[in-house]
């Protein structure tokens, strides 16, 4: 999530539908999915095609699979039957009993109680709600009925187990959360019981009522609720809120203007929820609840510097100095104080520095920041540098005449930064057309969004060679192998293994920008200049996801798409000149990167390429070259077994000091 890169992607066939959430089997590191209600699929990271992975057709419809870290996956069927995965796989077509009749499952959860998996699920029938608890390994089943609440019904559930007791929390439509205690019974036969509930917290404060859609438990005294906050006479707004259940107080809230899906998850002290079209991750850390903290009466010495409850920075683009100065999250309710603490030491240090240097001159600002970065042993240095860069970029936005180019270059070159630490840095560099800074960011940042990668590519391709020739760039990725044409004279540098060429060192830096090579020499000479080639290599070096990059790549103008494809074809030819298909130099693209980008570009622009006369010979040359390589590797495949046999024979024979053998391949 921190790198914003999907690590794997799998698809079912057209017409098939995934009918419950996919889970991971922690014991075997496998993924488990169900499509079309009854078809079970199990695969690992290395698997690519779901059609070729393990498949089992079950005898009943699956509602959900729950995966437990120490207990293995547990499968809940729509009829209420429960099986552990290992038992189910022994006989996939085994009969599954129907535990419920005419009831619909609304929610389920699983946990470990000792060495036994426990599954709890809630059902609804004609306005009545029931709770079932099953221990599949002990074949134990208990059914309970929830006490009815007048004029309201449960909307969402969550539960946890402690001291042989399940605590079930229910969010009701009357804007309240109720608590139900269910002991884990030892006996297997017992009549249906009615569960009484007690009010945990009422979701209203200062005339505003929270219409919750989902919630999670943070600890024994705090819950987080996602929903719409309604105030009389005002438009409702979606919010994430934190409540202290011990003292019945709202601790903090955050307005979510882009809207959510209504789902909220919590894992390892992080919130996960969708905000607009993105997945937002927010860190939090609980501390012991106290009355003083709950009502915001902590002494100043204990008062948090920033985000003591939750680090809201993931949500906002507000200027850094403003958020430090306010010492509370932007858009935080005035009556809402915070009783949780995030990692804030680096934030407070950067905040004090930002306030101190808010009105400082550029020269003073850079001197102070260099002093800060010289402290190599300083804890959380990278986080502080990230805040510092954000502060500089915010100043650039306010003052368009201020742009500390050299200082930003120094920071990127000397600090181990990432895009997520300073997300506006590349946007400002694009605006300023600072191609050197963009090149360094593409080479060094592991988590650049595909939209920014495409924007860089478009800028690089659109810039004229004359403009680039006066710009300092990192040429290490092209200096050893680029062949260009100058006034119909060849200036060709041989690809040498040690990365050095005398002719190259003498001539290449003084070479004028070449004109585009004629189609007759397609692939022989580089179609772009040395500096533009170095910039394009930086784009090839950047990580991406095909799913997210392809829609942007389709917007690339046809002329620039053809030029980029010519350059990729040139690199492909260069790689094929060497047996190891490796280009010399630092940050040089690999053959896999080149091939992947060629396929992406052709996928995005194939129809246009076919229609363009100037691309006809390029596509023809590419087709012939690939076809020749396919034939060559096909011939190699024919003798693969013979070569393996020779290798086996060589291992078996005891050769003396000198030996000559003639072997005939038939």
TrEMBL record:
The keyword Electron transport does not apply. InterPro entries: NOL11 (IPR042859), Nol11_C (IPR048897), NOL11_N (IPR012584). Residues 361-665 form the Nucleolar protein 11 C-terminal domain. One of its GO terms (cellular component) is nucleolus. One of its GO terms (biological process) is maturation of SSU-rRNA. It holds the Pfam family NOL11_N. One of its GO terms (molecular function) is RNA binding. Residues 1-285 form the Nucleolar protein 11 N-terminal domain. Keywords: Activator, Nucleus, rRNA processing, Transcription, Transcription regulation. It is found in: Nucleus, Nucleolus. This is NOL11 protein. It comes from Oreotrochilus melanogaster. The lineage of its organism: Eukaryota, Metazoa, Chordata, Craniata, Vertebrata. The gene is Nol11.
